[in-house]
Amino acid sequence: MTISLRYILLFLFLPFLSFNMVGQRLLQDPQLIKKKLSNGLTYYIYPTDQGKNQADVRLFVKTGSLQEADNQLGLAHFLEHMAFNGIKHFKANELIRFLESKGAKFGHDLNAHTSFQETIYKLKIPTRDIQVVDSTLTILSDWVDGMLLDSLEVEKERGVILSEWLSKQSPKLNSSQAFLDQLLNGSLYSNRKVIGDTTILRNFKHSELKQFYNQWYDPSIMAIAISGDIDVNKVEELIKKKFESKKTTSPNWKEHPIPSYTKDSLLIYSDSWVTKTELNYIQLIPPLRDVASINLYEQYLTRTIINSLFKERFAKLSKGKTFYTDGSISIGNFLPVKGAIIATVELDSSNLKKGIEQFNTHLGQLYTYGFTNQEIEKTKKNLYGSFKRKVQAEKSSSSSSLMNQMYQDFFYGNSIIDPSYELEILKKSIPKIDSTTILSYLQNINLGPKRYLMTTNASMKTQLPLNKELLAIINSAPHKIIPYKDSLFVPEKLLNEHPLAGKTTSINPISEIDATELILSNGVKIIYKHSDIEKNKVLLSGFRAGGFYGMDSIDYLTSMYAEPIVSLSGYGNFSREALSHFLAGNSAKVQMLVDKTRSGFFGSSNVQDTSTLFELFYLKWTQPQIDSILFDKVKEQSILKAEQSPNDKQVDFRNELNFLIKGKDYTTIPTTPEMIEEGLHVSDMIPLYNAFFGNAFDYTVIIISDQKLDDLLPYIETYLGGLPSDNSYNPKTYFPSSGFKKSQSFIRYASPSPKATVSVVFQHDKKIKDLHKKEVLNELVEGIIKIRLYEELRENAGKVYGVNVSLNSTSTPTSLSRHTISFNCAPEDASQLIQEVNKILKEITTGQLPIKQDLDNVKENSKKNYHAKRNTNAFWTKAIRDYYFKKYRSWDHVNNYDFMLDSITEKDIIKVIKKELLKTPRVNAILYPENYKNQ
């Protein structure tokens, strides 16, 4: 259950449109059922085969903090919590336990959020049994008019809500609130923080909560949305049966405006926890909603293209010779009643004035000259090609995607249309959008007063010009604006010469997963699996053990920069921008990847672009390039970031705790500006990149496609078999420290927020005999502990808002198990709650807290998630990689997962808790508020 501020731009709509401009109406998707009952309740039903035997269900309520009176601040969000604490057909925690028994996990498949003008209840349910669907709709029915609002449950929930308030207090929240305040501009929204007023939350009467519920939970401002593997007729019948008799009082619901700015103004926000200087240009504009006509769709399409162009232009500018670090601009709605144009620039304090002036010049170029034809055509090709591929794949939309569309229809009035129909509109509309229409649009929106918000570190504020002088700098017009020029050369082909093909030296079946293993003459191992899950698709994925841990200590830090800098610089004859233009409209994409324990890559394409996919992979593997200007920019930014990292007790706490847990060596020490300055050299980048990718020895490559192996074999032998390879690859063996050996407390007084942050870390390095079985066992233990702690610490005690439980075991590079239980709480409760955690773990092992039902529920949820993932190619890519990289003993993680789950007993769970939590060394870490010690 969360609070959603929804002030992040939705990027779905376009402002400055005349709502009289109706034109030809969009045709509703024929698959969608959208109707209203006589009491005003709207319902949406959309069947989809994406996610077999599952469905997403929502209850939309047009009620949030904006509907509260001055003495009700926080009741909308409080009511959302109470929906899970007892309804007519499910008392107290029965609702959660019922759904968890059917495979739904609280927090993941069962959740809710409240915002300014909406409350949304979210469920993901199994649909094999129509009784589960029936019961779910009964739950929604009870939420409409059957919440019990029991006085004892209300009192228990006060502590939970106040814990949630406490958990969110931080300097980051303060700076985010400063930004939000500028958007809300003194409107009623400004006085309606969703969490509410803590005094009211502590003291409101039960009758006031009931009054709010009775007034605002009305079917006339509600909608039910269901999408998934469902029987449409049965679902519609159930909705009518359960909701048609609900009475409506037609509450006086209305939207509240947010005024536009009347003049330019500047606000400077600073505190000691802000790590960078950033300037936001904010212009409030009318929103676009009720997109139900061709004309409005074309305007939406124009805006979509412009936002993509903004992103591309500033990505390019920010990596060049600029006096600012990063820049961006975007247009969109942040609420149904208001939109905004927001430009943001990150500034170097030593070049503040020059950075602002240069950013203004770049904005001026956009508003004066627009974009080049080359930029526009590339963006249009990408947009149209991507959407066309989606439609041609004949793959129905996921239920979650459809839910987003239903949300937009109900709250914003935007039509839900069929993808094939939308492709027709797109094909006709996209040619109309050219440099002239885009420039006209840009010049029309660059009007009206702006609000400027500068955020900076407290130590920097005194070095800034005075507000009036700074505002003058920001508002000063560039001396001369010339058109943006990009002398971009795009080669006509990816490879000038194709590699000498290798040979397949052996082919062996992997019967357990119906796949084929090929060994190429250069030693590369290929695992090919035929899959019809995604039509007309080729997935290419590879890995090799080593990664950053395989580097010498002197190269460890700098090796982390090699792949990112190369990817920004380009490959062969292509700059990054040239390659992006070459691939416009093409489905082929390849990303090279490196992490601590392995290097690898991932690529994909449609079948018609298979040749491009393999050529692109070979190009990125064999022809890395370095742009020295870009390298200097990255190095400069990295040093600046390291310099801006707060040098305070809170950072010291994190570093000391990290050393305690992981040991202190070259992989765990913080990066300093000096380390970057002295260690990062442009001449090292290509050799370090080639250390990961130049030699194909010991690589395993996974190919998943609906295409036959014989059709792909020429590409495999040419572009994978042609990779350079020799047995000189010899990564360093890194043996991380297992950290602490005995239990201890680690306490510091350094937090800038009023909460205490608690982490209990258990760790051992005992050898793991069967890693996958251990991972499955960890998953079950983690789920059970979380259920127990959640119920005892949150629901019964009201002392925490949430509890994180993580059990992790690995055999790479060495055997290590690290388990963590963490939460935020009031400082005075921290020590007591650690003792309570220990008590709960002991009570599980002694049977005082029974776990049989919990174990059954966690197993059911794990099975549901497993079978949902199994029907994706991503599952098979990961399953095959895990088998080889983690050196699993068998393919049981693919073929016998349900059996493995069912074979795990309560005794197994208790054994893990005893051995790996209660009898394993631990660190009880508490970060208290910095001034708490003196209280």
In helices, the fraction of residues equals 40-55%
Structural class: alpha+beta
Specify the CATH architecture of the largest domain: 2-Layer Sandwich
Number of helices: 31
Q: What would CATH call the class of the largest domain?
A: Alpha Beta
Radius of gyration: 29 Å
Give a quick account of the main beta sheet: strands, pairing sense, barrel closure.
7 strands, mixed
Oligomerization category of the chains in this entry: single chain
User: How far is the N terminus from the C terminus?
Assistant: 33 Å
CATH fold descriptor of the largest domain? Cytochrome Bc1 Complex, Chain A, domain 1
Instruction: Give the overall shape, derived from the CA principal axes.
Output: globular
Annotation, overall tally of beta strands: 26
Which regions are unreliable across 5 or more consecutive residues at pLDDT < 50?
A: 3-22
Strand order of the largest sheet: 1-5-6-4-7-3-2
Strand content: 15-25%
Query: What is the fourth-level CATH superfamily of the largest domain?
Result: Metalloenzyme, LuxS/M16 peptidase-like
Number of domains: 4
Notes on the structure:
It holds the Pfam family Peptidase_M16_C. Residues 205-383, 689-860 form the Peptidase M16 C-terminal domain. The protein is of the alpha+beta class and 935 residues long. It has four domains: 40-243, Metalloenzyme, LuxS/M16 peptidase-like (Cytochrome Bc1 Complex, Chain A, domain 1); 265-475, Cytochrome Bc1 Complex, Chain A, domain 1, CATH 3.30.830; 504-720, Cytochrome Bc1 Complex, Chain A, domain 1; 744-934, Cytochrome Bc1 Complex, Chain A, domain 1 (2-Layer Sandwich). Helices cover 43% and strands 19% of the residues. It contains 31 helices and 26 strands. The longest helix is centred in the last third of the chain and has 26 residues, at 771-796. The chain starts with a strand and ends in a 6-residue tail after the last strand.
